Amino acid sequence: MVQLSRLAASLLVPAGVLAAPAAESKLQRRFDGNGFNNWSEGGSNIKCVNGPGGSFTADWNSQGGFVCGKGWNGQGDRTITYSGTYNATGPGYLAIYGWTRNPLIEYYIVESHADLAPNEPWTSKGTFTIDEGTYEVFTATRVEKPSIEGTRTFEQYWSVRQEKRVGGTVTTGKHFQQWAQLGMNLGTYDSVIVAVEGYTAQGGSGSAGSAAIEIE
């Protein structure tokens, strides 16, 4: 069982921040550097920096929540290849992170993490093995919390990788298929990013980032 920790609020992907969907050629599928996302609530020592191509860095030593990363508008069943780093204490993770609408769902495919142990009603739905790893699936309900549609009540879907890694390939459609078999249905894809997120209510620190991101 993966130990999960409380996250103070759902983290947002502001409208208009992400790059347009990737074009058809292999070269154009490589991240063009325009979809940088940087959001925080509180904390005075959180630094997220956009880099060239699919690179970004995050450094923090503070209380407060943040998320930063790079991604695309839309995007459903895709293969995302990334490489990066992640070294942290306190609640936080490196994940493929996104939203859908109708229904409004916030979803996470967690590749690596520090502390994850929520004091809220998470429900384990079992495990499955894909992309050379085993993931445990969780659901949670956020009641009147911030979302891409304002303050709403919505579901969270989580796949948490048991063998932590900071680089590899994530086939999002395989997760979506497993979730659907559990009755966890997504809506219309709004956005997806390779993200670093942390919530350090008790204080935490770390450094993380991506060196490259590619989508197919």
Automatic annotation (TrEMBL):
Listed GO MF terms: endo-1,4-beta-xylanase activity
Enzyme class, UniProt record, top EC level: hydrolase
The EC number(s) this enzyme carries: 3.2.1.8
Gene Ontology biological-process annotations: xylan catabolic process
Domain GH11 residue range list: 22-210
Signal peptide range: 1-19
Pfam families on file: Glyco_hydro_11
Recorded catalytic activity of this chain's protein: Endohydrolysis of (1->4)-beta-D-xylosidic linkages in xylans
Entries under InterPro entries matching the protein: ConA-like_dom_sf, GH11/12, GH11_AS_1, GH11_dom, Glyco_hydro_11
Active-site residues from the entry: 106, 197
Protein family (similarity comment): Belongs to the glycosyl hydrolase 11 (cellulase G) family.
PANTHER family xref list: ENDO-1,4-BETA-XYLANASE A-RELATED
Protein name: Endo-1,4-beta-xylanase
Source organism (scientific name): Corynascus novoguineensis
